[in-house]
Amino acid sequence: MPETPEQLYERAAAALRMPPVHEWDTFPFDGDMRPRQLRPPADADPPRSGAQGVECDSCSKADVDYLWTNERWRLFAPQPNGLPVVVLLEAREHYAEPGDLPDELASDLGVMVARVERAVRSLPGIGRVHVCRWGDGSEHLHWWFMARPARFSQLIGSFAAVWDDVLPPTPDVVWRSNLDHVVQRLRDEKDRRAPSTT
Ligand SMILES: [Zn+2]
């Protein structure tokens, strides 16, 4: 039987653990730390922006606001931050969860994840492209592609998303050049579907 949020709170609030972050090479912060007090569960999750497509930023934006678009997907680049490239892949239509996608669009999402990852990874100096979906902020379905610089062992893994806010922003001219590279690679993409054998 699943635990209710209230049961989880009762069990966990006084039993929080402090992991050995001082031993974690990838942890971006130093100094004495302790877990924040766990607050009791709220009555409901906080509302997401653009819920049900009402006043949705993504739905209201024109293609010109995007880095790259096709008939089903649009690629967005937020303002430059610490990582050399961060782009978001959005469905053109408003869907909230990956599981809401019709099968055909879900299949195409797999192709697009591979294409965007490949385009970002082709940029010199990139060690890995993290592909992430959280979805607790804006409801409009979006996937993050976060380029992790090569050869910095501290930047590997999921803390790269935090290092993005710790490293100083990528200089504008470098950032724009990086995005140009990604867009050109996407435009050069060929259809890699295997030829039908039937
Ligand atoms: Zn939307």
Keywords:
198 residues; alpha+beta; HIT family, subunit A; 5-stranded antiparallel beta sheet; binds zinc ion
Characterise the protein shown here.
With 198 residues, the chain is of the alpha+beta class. The chain has a domain at 51-188: HIT family, subunit A (2-Layer Sandwich), CATH 3.30.428. Helix content is 28%, strand content 14%. The protein is built from five helices and five strands. It has helices at 5-12, 57-60, 103-121, 160-166, 172-188, and strands at 68-69, 73-76, 86-91, 126-132, 142-149. A five-stranded antiparallel sheet has the order 1-2-3-5-4, with helices on one face. Strand 1 and strand 2 form a beta hairpin. It is globular and about 55 Å long. The N and C termini lie far apart (47 Å). The mean pLDDT is 95. Zinc ion is lined by residues 50, 53, 56, 58-59, 94, 140.
Rg over alpha carbons:
20 Å
> From the helix content, strand content and strand pairing, which structural class follows?
alpha+beta
Shape: globular
Fraction of residues in H or I helices: 25-40%
Say what the CATH topology of the domain at 51-188 is. HIT family, subunit A
Query: Which hetero ligands occur in this complex?
Result: zinc ion
Topology pattern, helix = H, strand = E: HHEEEHEEHH
CATH architecture label name of the domain at 51-188 = 2-Layer Sandwich
Question: Count the strands?
Answer: 5
Low-confidence stretches: none
Largest β-sheet summary: 5 strands, antiparallel
- Main sheet: strand order: 1-2-3-5-4
